Amino acid sequence: MTRAYVGLGANLGDREATIRRALVLLGERPGVDILLVSTLRETEPVGFLDQPSFLNGAAMIETSLDPESLLAELLAVELELGRDRRGARNGPRTIDLDLLLHGDLGVELPGLTVPHPRLHERAFVLEPLFELDPTLRIPGRGSVTDALAALDSDA
Fold first, then answer.
1. Per-residue b/e over 12-48, b at no fewer than 16 CB within 10 Å?
2. Residue 146: in which H helix or E strand, if any?
3. Max Cα–Cα distance, the chain, nearest Å
4. Which end of the chain has fewer CB atoms surrounding its CB within 10 Å, N or C?
5. Cβ(78)–Cβ(96) under 8 Å?
6. Is the pTM higher than 0.85?
7. Rounded to an integer, what is the distance from CA 19 to the centroid of its chain?
8. Rounded to the nearest 5°, which phi and psi values hold at 23?
């Protein structure tokens, strides 16, 4: 089993209920065990600003799935919960499940980059990861603690 981390987000409808439902659906998938879920945080949108605020968090899971198979399960859960990917990039969404980390793997495939390419730039991702595991390391980037400190020094 591999430890992986999934970013959780929503800004349409009952955000918390949708995120909680996504976790239930994900945990029912073969080869996926939800270990811990961070506190959910109210966050401002990034990129496309004219939209409601988000509720964001992260989940620590154990999985027997490879990164591509796990991503397929995340996308299936999103679809089941009404995610429509035809809108603006970074636009409003009922649910957003991002594969942030998959063990210590680095993956570069069409449609899949692990570690998530912008996780080290976003406090709304780093803070939940730090809450789940303060000693967590981002392959090729160092510790979550250092990434958070770098964001604080840029502010």
1. beebeebbebbbebbeebeebebeebbebbebebeee
2. helix 144-154
3. 42
4. C
5. yes
6. yes
7. 11
8. -65, -40
Distances (CA, A) of 44 to 32, 41, 124, 134: 30, 10, 9, 24
Prior bond of 115 cis (ω within 30°): yes
Tell me: pLDDT of 87 over 70.
no
List the structure tokens of 10.
């929503």
34-44 pLDDT tens trace: 999 999 999 87
- List the domains of the chain with CATH numbers: 2-117 (3.30.70.560)
Give percent helix, percent strand, percent coil of the chain, each to the nearest 5: 35, 30, 40
Q: What are the residues facing 57 on neighbouring strands?
A: 8
The answer to whether 8 and 57 have CB atoms below 8 angstroms apart is: yes
| Calpha distance 128→81 (Å, rounded) | 23
**Angle CA 147–149–153, to nearest 5:** 120
pLDDT, residue 132, reads 97
Q: Residue 104 CB: number of other CB atoms within 10 A?
A: 12
Of residues 117 and 64, more confidently modeled: 64
